[in-house]
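Record 1 of the preview.
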Amino acid sequence: MALILGMDTSMSACSVALIADGQTITHASEEMTRGQSEALAPMIDRVMIGHDYADLDAVAVTRGPGAFTGLRIGLAAARSLAMTIDRPCLGISTFDVLSLQVMQNTDVVIPSDGIIVIAIETKRDDFYIQAIGEDGSFVIPPAAMMAEDIRSALPEDRPLFIAGDGWSRLHGELGPEGPAMREIPNVVLPDAAVLAKCAQAFVETPDDAPTSPLYLRPPDVTMPKKAE
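->
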């Protein structure tokens, strides 16, 4: 039985889940724009009540894209825990987690020509974006792009199914002249249980799930002025 602890702090939430052979055992999640560093450890302890850390087969974490501070919090916690219990730490992209959530959403049937677009808010003018076809091939590979560039990269004759917390702003910026779009309901933030389910495919091959952060552009940094 593969027992995996998943944790996500990549966006505006803190989410932790424990799964066994793809089935969710315990799950906790709270939306928050900040404070993940204080919330994460107690949330992990609550999820692990009644379970021994030594019984875990792996620890999984979202590796980005997302908020720089949130990513560092989750990656540091997951790596530390995995090192302490001598288990693999598996990094899964935020795009992959949200894409699987879309495919598991029974409220929407995606046609064979449909495109799944994951739009993640960057708090800047651009978006973290990924678009894949029904067969899993990239229409837009992971990138940070402006709305006008996204419009140019997306085919106009195929329906778009958009998820992620950037949906509303992207929809507004693409405008009525853009391609036909439909929001995927209830797929806004990564779910740690789905993250852990993504990770179970890599328990035996952890090198295929690196925990290096997936940064699609450099952080906003203002260098201090040199002293006169």
